[in-house]
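PROTEIN–LIGAND DATA SHEET

This sheet pairs a single protein chain with one bound small molecule, zinc ion, given as SMILES. Inputs appear in the order they were entered. The predicted three-dimensional arrangement of chain and ligand is reported afterwards as a token string under its own label.
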Amino acid sequence: MNLKKRGNEDMIVTLLSTESLLTLYRFYGARHSALQLGYKIDFIVENNPFFMPRLRQVAHLSFEWLFSLEKARVWQRFCQLLYAHLRGAEECGGFYYDMLENAAGKLKTQNPKRTMIESAAALLEHEGRLHSDMRCFICREEIKGGRVALLRGCSPAHAACVGAEGFDLRAVKRLFEAKESLLFADPEIKILWKIVESGL
Ligand SMILES: [Zn+2]
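PREDICTION REPORTED AS:
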């Protein structure tokens, strides 16, 4: 999930496992295959009483869509955002791993930005931060119709209250309730992705 170079070619690697975030040390070795951000791997943790636990016997479990540059780029960006969001929360629980597994499955056929926007909505809901009540972030009134702007963390506001073009209310509701982005047009997906990129 995160790779930090240390010394020559050694690395401190942060991995999201099924239940928690692991930070491990990886010694450089010619026989090691290169690690890339966002790769799914099989591995062994070797505990070291004097230092950080070591990452050993890495085997890549590749996603077939990683050959698509656009999919790989959006996936890696989402992994960076998720790392920034989760770092320091080692016992994060199984939700995040399952969310990525689900997204990786959808990426076989679905647009990458749409997929990761849907994942971001699921994450916000899991953390109790998805504002499904549709109350405007600025004036605190309920948004009953018209256009909805989304701020960082997908906080909704009346488009008029923030002076933005906003999105169709039905499309936002569909995303919040069903975690489906299909009612957004492609140019809107680009704007939504920028909102996700501003921080989970
Ligand atoms: Zn308002």
